[in-house]
Automatic annotation (TrEMBL):
Gene3D superfamilies: Transferase(Phosphotransferase) domain 1. This is Protein kinase domain-containing protein. GO terms for molecular function: ATP binding; protein kinase activity. It comes from the Bacteria. PROSITE patterns: PROTEIN_KINASE_DOM. The lineage of its organism: Bacteria, Bacillati, Actinomycetota, Actinomycetes, Micromonosporales. Residues 1-261 form the Protein kinase domain.
């Protein structure tokens, strides 16, 4: 396990770990670590680190290695995603590090929802930039499918998408963050409309302080001053049928121009 480890070595590079997420394969043949880290080299830069450790060589571990290589390639090809700074492919491990966008995660910067008017305006104004990155996935037949406030990085003048989410993997039943999961994800289905739902679910949560349920209350009931601007686009984007949701660009255009009464 990684719990006691404070650093990771990849080739000749050493990374000092900060916050981390770890997953272990059901057959325990591999572990995957994702963490914010500091590259301890002459460059000494902050990165987002993804690391596969093979515990027992076999088909499952190599399939996971292939998926992570695909994920790294997405970072190099999708406009707006942080670029890969380092790749190290070893017999018992695969590591890649991406640039850390300038700024801070939304929860770190603004705290827990509901957000104040200035914070909401800032987030809504940055959504078209995130949409352009998501459209890069959609153009090649993929979707992020794991949107949540923690992967949205806010700086002074823009909003960044930190990672490729689940875009490298095939849809799986019940995937994605539960609070923002689209209904079709319960059935192992996903597409561009999934990202539309998740982005709307995040905004609904930031505005109202409540994650949307299967039949969410209108914004008017929870944050009346935002009702005129947000009720219609959010309720449309949270529709349970993917084909009834608006286009991503239309949604983010409506949200980015919203102002409270």
């Amino acid at each position: 396990m990684y719990s006691a480890r404070r650093e990771i070595r990849a080739g000749s590079e050493i990374f000092h770990l900060r916050g981390r997420e770890e997953t272990v394969a059901s057959d325990r043949s591999y572990r995957v670590l994702r963490a914010d880290a500091r590259q301890a080299s002459a460059r000494s830069r902050d990165v987002r680190l993804t690391r596969l450790d093979v515990v027992r060589p076999g088909v499952c571990a190599e399939e996971r290695r292939a998926l992570l290589k695909t994920e790294a390639r997405l970072h190099d090809t999708i406009p707006g995603l942080p670029r890969v700074l380092l790749r190290v492919d070893e017999a018992s491990a695969f590591t890649f590090a991406t640039a850390m966008p300038p700024g801070a995660e939304l929860p770190e910067l603004y705290g827990r929802p509901p957000y104040s008017r200035p914070a909401l305006v800032a987030v809504l104004r940055g959504l078209p930039q995130v949409a352009r990155t998501l459209e890069g996935f959609h153009a090649i037949g993929r979707a992020h499918r794991a949107l949540r406030p923690e992967v949205l990085i806010a700086s002074r003048d823009r909003l960044w998408l930190r990672d490729a989410g689940l875009a490298a993997t095939a849809p799986a039943a019940g995937e994605g963050p539960a609070a923002y999961r689209a209904p079709e994800q319960e059935l192992a289905r996903a597409g561009p409309a999934t990202d539309v739902h998740q982005l709307a679910a995040i905004v609904y949560h930031l505005v109202t302080g409540e994650a949307p349920c299967a039949d969410p209350l209108p914004v008017a009931r929870l944050r009346p001053e935002w009702a005129a601007a947000l009720d219609e686009p959010l309720m449309a984007a949270l529709h349970p049928v993917p084909g009834r949701r608006p286009d991503l660009r239309d949604l983010t255009h409506a949200l980015s121009s919203a102002t409270p009464d």
